[in-house]
Design goal:
Length: 145
């Protein structure tokens, strides 16, 4: 079983989100996704989220500031821990060969329709926004593939 993290940083008004244009894996190449990657051996997912976001955007969001809102699971293959945060989106910059940029949230569904974003991106962003707008800590949404 391989563990991954996926994170979305939003602007204060939740109108903009930080995304990355993927180059790998091949099935994601050229598509938009949140920031994330593989959880290293003996690393906690929340620490992996902190590390991956810093590596890919040069912005450090300490573990305590990330809120987990979803766990996606494909039994016996992979788990993706999904996190969200409100922060200074315009401080993020490209740090690897995958381009980082800030996108207007309502445009995401259009980008999916045009084939420029991963199909579940709109759903994940809406779920993250729901979590950020809630005063009560909801239970994780679990998605089985």
């Amino acid at each position: 079983m391989i563990n991954y993290v996926l994170g979305f940083m939003f602007s204060e008004d939740l109108g903009h989100v930080v995304l990355i244009e993927k180059k790998r894996p091949e099935w994601q190449a050229g598509k938009l996704n949140g920031i994330g990657g593989k959880v290293e051996d003996k690393e906690l997912p929340i620490k992996a989220m902190e590390r991956e976001f810093k590596e890919e955007t040069d912005v450090c969001v300490v573990s305590d500031n990330w809120k987990r809102f979803c766990i996606m699971i494909k039994p016996d293959e992979w788990t993706v821990f999904c996190y969200c945060h409100v922060g200074k989106v315009y401080h993020c910059k490209t740090m690897t060969d995958e381009r980082v940029f800030v996108q207007i949230v309502p445009v995401i569904s259009t980008l999916i329709a045009e084939g420029k974003a991963l199909s579940k991106l709109d759903w994940l962003i809406r779920l993250a926004i729901d979590m950020l707008q809630s005063d009560v800590k909801p239970k994780d949404a679990y998605v089985l593939y």
